[in-house]
Amino acid sequence: MSTFDLLIKGARVVDAKNHRDEITDVGIKGEKIAAVAPNLAPSEASEVMQAQGLLLLPGLIDSHVHLGISACGFKMVAAAGVTTCLDMSGTSDDLARIAKTNGAAINYGTLEAILPGKNVPTNDPSTEEIAAFVNKALANGSYGVKILGGHFPLTPKANERLVRYCQENGVYIAWHAGSTETGSDLSGVKEAVAAANGGFLHLPHINAYCRGCPEKAAALSIVVLQILEANPNIVTESYLSSRNGSNLVCDENGIPKSAVPRKCLANFGFSPDKKGLVDAILSGRLAVMKDGQDQTILISGKEGADYFLDQNTNVSGSFSGLNPLSSRVLCATAKRGTSQAFTVDALSTDGGCIPRNVTLKAGLELVDLDGLTMLEFVKKACLMPARILNLPTKGHLSVGADADICVADPIAKTPVRVLAGGNTVFENGKIFNGVPTAFTTSKGLSFYSSQGIPVREANPSFEPLNRLN
Predict the structure, then answer these.
(1) pLDDT digit string (tens) for 430-465?
(2) Quick one: which of 226, 208, 233, 238 has its CA closest to 336?
């Protein structure tokens, strides 16, 4: 019997937890890392991969994706080097269906969004209505819940009730900043931090609240970063794409139901209605998402406008040039005072189905520009999101850790081979079909078992986040 199922030889191996950045070999046995050492013998392996000139990183962990917008999400994140991700709004039922019919064998969890008029009666639900929503979401397999404040806001008091309920009952909660009184901006950030009242809260895509006009983005970022430094129990991530993503569905009056496209249209000088959406698509400022077999593509111009109208607005879209470079770089690189801890804990994409899964490419470009060291990039893209989600066997390459690996071309800045639990999910442009493994709390295990989806228990930790190695 071979010592290793797979031996990867001669790659530049980068592991932030173990302070490793060197040319060496990695041996895999079953689902685990079996050895990290130079000169491991090829004769001891069932398969040998020669990886000279390539990077070998832990599989990326994306703590903010959207997998339920189309049927392509699992495959799109796998092709981007991601082996574990957290969906922030899809229902467990929808994602389980996609996982079984068009999945890739990565790992995923879900946060179900609270939606006024759908899973709560109004935008001002009572504590009893909030409890019913949260407990149903957990029983249905969700790792926690999310407030979609920028899209489908609750009242400030309802947000406070939901945050307090989750904190008191040990439920993971994320909040896309905003309410009926504030937006996805600095005012929304301040409101969310105040509602957290010193307790745990995941405040996602922090750079999205620093948009404004480009000349103000850096100043807004500095203020937001100062708020985060003063509130260490707020965990955060940011993304490196200039694009956003949003549902474009309009109501019977031709007004986008989500507040985000209305605001984007106004920012770019278009009317905040169906006509403005068409004009933005024709101009190329807005692209519409259209599903292919394994990926979602963006289309604009006349083709995009025709598709948008043919679908009766029931599509999602992505505005270009929305997230200024200044805020993206500041949020990716800023550190807390004189320490080596980053102010924004992790890198994410807010992608998945949305075609902006650029963490590997853009992160390595930041390394080239000396914005991050290679170890710092791997810390933010792999180790810290694993800590945020309390997945201790992921995000690093220690012996005994899960064999989640991204082998990448450092010049093209693209994955060459991606393994999750020792199984190849992507190699040389080909995505392999497979059923992903869900992670959920003890309350959601039976849901996934009933769905025939592999599952592992991973309960959130609300201890202060370890931001140092």
Answers:
(1) 999 999 999 999 999 999 999 999 999 999 999 999
(2) 226
Are 299 and 287 in contact by the 8 Å Cβ rule? The answer is: yes
SS3 content of the chain, % helix, strand, coil (to 5): 30, 30, 40
Q: What is the pLDDT of residues 142-179, one digit of tens each?
A: 999 999 998 899 999 999 999 999 999 999 999 999 99
Distance separating alpha carbons of residues 281 and 173, to the nearest angstrom: 34
DSSP state of 242: S
Is residue 215 over pLDDT 90? no
For residues 79 and 426, the answer to whether their CB atoms sit within 8 Å is yes
Is the pLDDT confidence value at 357 over 80? yes
Measure Cα distances from 431 to 81, 290, 418, 419, 437 in Å: 11, 19, 9, 11, 16
Residue 213, pLDDT above cutoff 70: no
**Cβ within 8 Å of residue 426, ≥6 positions away:** 78, 79, 81, 104, 415, 417, 418, 432
Q: How far is CA 107 from CA 83, 99, 202, 368, 389, in A?
A: 6, 10, 20, 29, 12
Element (H, E) at 326: helix 325-333
Is the pTM value of this prediction over 0.85? yes
CB neighbour class for 173 (10 Å; exposed up to 12, middle 13-18, buried from 19): buried
Radius of gyration of the chain (CA): 21
Q: Give the strand order in the sheet containing 246-247.
A: 246-247, 316-319, 286-291, 296-299
* Residue 340 CB-density burial (10 A; 0-12 exposed, 13-18 middle, 19+ buried): exposed
Structure tokens at 395: 């995000």
Residue 217 tokens, joined: 């983005």
Neighbours of 252 (CB within 10 A): 5
Separation of alpha carbons 455 and 462, rounded Å? 22
Cα distance between residue 6 and residue 28, in whole Å: 5
Percent of the chain predicted with pLDDT > 90: 89
Residue appearing with tokens 């068409």: 278
Q: How far is CA 266 from CA 34, 242, 273, in A?
A: 55, 18, 10
Strands 234-239, 45-50: pairing is unpaired
**pLDDT one-digit tens code per residue, 253-271:** 999 998 889 989 998 999 9
SS3 assignment, position 188: helix
